[in-house]
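Comment thread on ticket #2218

A.B. wrote:
> Attaching the input chain for the structure job we discussed in standup.
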Amino acid sequence: KVGSLCTFGTVRLSDGTSKDEGRVELCYNAEWGTFCDLNWDRRDAQVICRELGYSSTYAAFFVDSEYFGNGDRIPYLYTDVNCDGTESDVLTGCNKNDQIEGSNCLYGNAVGVKCFNTTGCTDGDYRL
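C.D. wrote:
> Ran it. Output below, let me know if you need it in another format.
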């Protein structure tokens, strides 16, 4: 997946067991990169899921995400992502710090997300 062509600002989930989960990757300057898990929370995951077309109400996140692998050592692009959960995309809508050399984000600290394509339930709904 590293080296595959991408469009600036596109996000994807990689190396999950389904298309609904994986390490969060962002296309930046024609290369895939990822986010450091420092200060990542559910609101950040909600924005990623919204970007991918899921219901943003239900989103889970994984930190220290060896669960989805290290991404063949793809670069960390951002750390300390801080979304309020209402943004339409993480690249232009959320506060974040550029990943800089010497920071305390090491490989194995890529963030992962699981998105749920559901809107919950309304009065009178049944679940089997």
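A.B. wrote:
> Thanks. Noting for the ticket: The helical segments are 42-51, 90-93.
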